[in-house]
Design goal:
Number of helices: 5
Largest sheet: 2 strands, antiparallel
Strand order of the largest sheet: 1-2
Structural class: mainly alpha
Number of strands: 4
Oligomer: single chain
Shape: elongated
């Protein structure tokens, strides 16, 4: 943003005031568009700048959130695709069973130590979940066959 004229002095720094309403200005509005050769600007606050353009000035994050919500509503899958890391996990588990440290596994495979830790946690979690499900099914079937 270019420096603005017509500023109000504060204790810490100069803050430009809106040409129209005297609020703190955060936009330099070109009276004649730069594409048409305009060079003169007026300091305007977001509200007044939005009135000039006949729209509400919305922050980039609000626009991004709205666009992502529309895509999601249309069924577009967002984010990075899920990778199948089962081969890596099996290799990491093999190295762990051989007594290798996370750092050694990282150096051997070229995968960051953070990713090695994360994938080993996933493997441990899945193994624990598998054991819980196995126990639950065996208990269920034992009761079903007993009754």
């Amino acid at each position: 943003m270019r420096p603005m004229r017509d500023c109000t002095m504060t204790k810490t720094k100069m803050k430009p005031k809106c040409f129209e309403c005297n609020a703190i200005a955060d936009h330099n509005h070109h009276v004649i568009p730069r594409s048409k050769g305009g060079t003169k600007m007026l300091p305007l606050c977001s509200s007044c700048h939005g009135k000039v353009h006949d729209s509400k000035m919305i922050s980039t994050s609000e626009l991004t959130k709205a666009a992502l919500a529309k895509l999601k509503a249309r069924g577009v899958k967002l984010g990075a695709p899920i990778k199948n890391n089962s081969v890596k996990i099996q290799l990491f588990l093999k190295y762990r069973s051989q007594g290798k440290t996370i750092k050694q596994i990282s150096e051997l495979t070229g995968v960051s130590t953070g990713s090695v830790c994360r994938l080993l946690k996933v493997a441990t979690h899945n193994a624990m979940l598998g054991e819980l499900l196995k126990d639950a099914y065996s208990t269920y079937y034992a009761k079903a066959n007993h009754d």
